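If you are new to this repository, start here. Below is one unmodified record pulled from the training split, so you can see the exact layout before writing a loader.
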Amino acid sequence: MLLQIVDDNETNLMLFEQIARRLGPEVEVACHADPLAGIAACEAEMPDLVLVDYMMPNMDGHEYVARVRAMPGGRDVPIVMVTAAAERSVRQKALELGVTDFLAKPVDPSEVRVRLNNLLALRKSHLKLKNQNRWLADEVAKATGALLEREEELIVRLARAAEFRDPETGGHIHRMAHYSLLIARNLNLPKDTCELILKAAPMHDIGKLGTPDGILLKPGRLDEEELVVMKRHPVIGHAILSGSTSQLIQLGAEIALSHHERWDGLGYPHGLKGEAIALPGRIVAVADVFDALTSDRPYKRSWAVERARDLLAENSGTHFEPACIDAFFGAWSEVLAIRERFADPELPEDAGLAGMV
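And here is the target side for that same chain:
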């Protein structure tokens, strides 16, 4: 524990130092006859207790207290001011500035020792509690982080479960999620929202877990009845994910339900139009279609990226929200980097070339 004593009177300084030295070996004493030197010492290392005289040259006790309180870590340090017994107005102002206690001249050495000892004990208890609170905050943060990691792991595993039933690849999940992140960033969405979209986007097709294999895995195009069944997967996905208290899973439910809606109202499952469609769904729609077009499937070959880009541009304002298309094109170099980073293995040359479902 560091006790600082500031008094321009050498006799008083020696007296207070002698009293302080009797407080025990754990108390380190620093004496300053010049208040400016005392302030410099506080800036270098904040003491655990300050004993300061009121009447001093260069800087009185009021200014000294004000400057200590304004320093980092100075708000909670006990400060004892030494004043004349009759200086009531001085004491009033000192209290307003944050003085903890007073000693009246002439001082009683026994009283000084007891007061300083009590204040150091109080300071020690305060620091212990502060450290405990910091430790508790760290533990809560660790526990919260662990819960979020488990939540994100569950989402990834759900997305993988959907992959096993779908001819789409794991690369598709990563690519479309990162495309969605690019769009969200270029739309100037808050950083935490962008991160949530990145993590929630892989849940977009969770509803395909409820789609029959004969339809989900059928090579070539689906007939009208099969399309009706396939178009139920957004509702199924929403049903799987809805009702959670997790903000991330709630967003996943919203994306699952809305990513097949169209800007012109001709999408499904509810035929929503324009801004009635949730923004995350409008974002994922662009990312999902682009990656579907530019990816190989067992039943089709991938499109060239420029051909897919042209199709997106042609459908801006009909299938897709124009702002989302502009945001996607505005990060084109990053789009190409993501395609390379999460590239799929090439399909055999004899893979089917049927049209995309």
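Two things worth knowing about this chain: The radius of gyration is 35 Å. The chain is about 55% helix and 5% strand.
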